[in-house]
Amino acid sequence: MLVPSLLLPSRAPLALLAMLSLASFGAGTAAAQLPAGPPPPRRTVLLTGYWPPTNEAVRRFSPNPAQNPLGWIGSDWESRGYDVVSYFPEFTPPNCTSCGPGSGDLEVDYQDTSNDFWAIVAAVKPIAIVTLSRGFPGLLWEVEMNMPNLATWSNDFVAPFAPPVLPPDSSVPAGFMRTSTLPAQDIAQQVNAAGLGLTAFVCTAADSGAFLSGYIAYHGMWYQSLHASPVDPDWCVAAGHIHVGTNVSWPIAEAAVQVTLRSVIRRVDDARGIREAFCFGDGLDPSVTSACPCANVGAARHGCANSVQPDGARLSGSGFSVPDSIVLQADGLSGLTCIFLQGDARADFVFGDGVACVGGGLLRLRAQVVTGGASSFPLPGDPSVSTRGQVVPGSGARRYYQTYYRNAAAGFCPPATFNVTNGVVIDW
Fold first, then answer.
1. CATH classification of the domain holding 98
2. How far apart are CA 176 and CA 156, in angstroms?
3. Is residue 344 left, alpha or beta, with left meaning phi > 0 and alpha meaning psi from -120 to 50?
4. pLDDT tens, 278-331?
5. Per residue in 189-204, pLDDT tens?
6. Do 336 and 380 share a domain, yes or no?
7. In terms of DSSP bridges, do strands 238-244 and 140-144 run parallel, antiparallel, or are they unpaired?
8. Do residue 378 and residue 293 come from a single domain?
């Protein structure tokens, strides 16, 4: 159902929008009666660390409870739509200076590192990789730009002391330089602005070195180069290496890793064409002036709280805009039906028990059933998001998406009987 040029400059057209978008709830189509499938799998960002403080900085992202007894924090990290996992060796003592090879994953050994790395990426299929290792003395966060395919490496700790293949990457000549695809300048700027007391900078004059730091740094870039195409189902958008100063404390290093992750995820979102949670009523988005009505504030990057989910419902997007493999997934819904909407402009006003995020020319993509609090579009048999949304992938068009759903059981602001998720913006 196309709503011709429905502009929403104020609350005046709100009743009209409610009538047009909600009147046909439950009317049903063949596609709408299909049960909601499982949510699309999230892509994964891979972190690795070597000597302290870097192994400690990434520890909370380890899914291994023996290494991370406090619990994995990487599942849908910060509700940004990605899982984050980490792998690293262990050292005795943990605060060692001369640490030796360590034990476990990615030991400081060429053979072990290479074998572990390729096994890890085969299992994880990372969409981005950040490798970290200890650098020079100081409170430094050094984002390396250059990773060389060296024919000569410094000896490690366990025979055989050199990499098993020299140079490691036979697809390019010895000395070939791979360049970081991380958002290096943004990482440095964000870490410097975070008030952590670090000096972050991008190193372009040197390279990642001829020991294990440089070796795993090259492996990360090597993998990314093998999966650099957006049409590759295992597309890896970005990879690179960071040297961390030896005087950086473990908590500060952990905080700087999280600042770095946010920058990397923004880079990945830009490449995918998807930005999640651009509009919500939790006060974290300064461009949103409308607060959740009746103080029913949801969790960060969710919609306003509803009658069954205190965190509020959340809309996320998986896949890529070019070529279109987008799947919109809504979770935390109440009621039995929902509607996926597309707009060509942002909105910002209280709507039912939530905050409306989409406006301009509105298109109702599909009314879907809600199963177990979740629904998605497209389901098998549905047209793609771009087809139904009448937009051409690769055109550069920007569209906004949000899911409207029934919330009749216990409206927070009677007589409201509906609520909305956060919004998702897709750059086609």
1. 3.40.630.20
2. 22
3. alpha
4. 666 555 556 677 888 888 888 878 898 998 899 899 998 888 888 898 999 999
5. 999 999 999 999 999 9
6. yes
7. antiparallel
8. yes
